[in-house]
Amino acid sequence: MQWNILIGPALGAVIGYVTNLIAVQMLFHPINPVYIGKYRIPFTPGIIPRGKARFAKAIGNVVGNNLLNPVIIKETLLSPDKEQEIGKQLDLIFQKLSDDNTTLEVRLNTMIGDSAQIKLESDIVETLTQKISNELITMNLGQVIAAEVRSAVVEKVQGTMLAMFLNPSVLEPIENTIKDRVNIYIEEHAEDKVNNLIRDEYTKLNQQTISSLFDHINTVELKETILKVYRMLITDYSEKILTSLNLSKIAEEKVNAMDTKEVEELVLSIMKKELGAVVNLGAVIGFVLGLINLLF
């Protein structure tokens, strides 16, 4: 066999390989324009550095319109598998909390710090104090208590001689006096009394362990409630959130902010094998064309 007849096909393979290798390299290189004097050499910079803005915009459109659009996100987050996964995570969290023997005070201190915990306690106590005090005042408890006292007195003296003297003209001033004094007392002292009561209860609550608190919680109902809230948030607000985030724009800006070398690494991480196959295909095609050339 004469090996020299393979020189043509081998040369064609080398030419095809080198040509495609140069073509692939020209996707990314040179990064900057190359000039001879004042004339820019054609095809410099490379295709991707020259069209980086278009490349970024295309990726942004793919991300925002095809990969992470509201419909896909909603379907994914509301899928049975995702809800089952969230349910399992909640079970693990509940189990961990039910075994947690640290006090609520210690846990809050670990999570938010001492100063934030003090402010949280102050805000809770102050808010509840104001709401409960205002409710007590607007309830007109003096009227309620005075009416109950009058009813009790009338009931006690019913059928006795004393009932003759406790007619409405006698009882009414007494009832009004009780009503006024009770209402005045509540207006003057309700806030302090309620504040002390709430503060004491908050302190008791803070000293309880996490596990003891969970003894009084139906975790099955709690999990279902959390999942219902999750479904509601995804159904009602996911589209608004994604629209406000504008993921297409974020992806475009991120790619634009990347160094050209980073863009190259990104593309190669996805298409390295495919681009390598293109280069090797050039060698195969060159070799085949060389063989065909031998026939003519």
Automatic annotation (TrEMBL):
GO cellular component labels: endomembrane system
Listed transmembrane segments: 6-28, 275-295
Keyword annotations: Membrane, Transmembrane, Transmembrane helix
Main subcellular location: membrane
UniProt keyword Transmembrane helix present: yes
Protein name: DUF445 family protein
One Pfam family it belongs to: DUF445
Compartmental location: Endomembrane system
InterPro entries: DUF445
Family: Belongs to the UPF0754 family.
Highest taxon of source: Bacteria
Natural source organism: Anaerocolumna sedimenticola
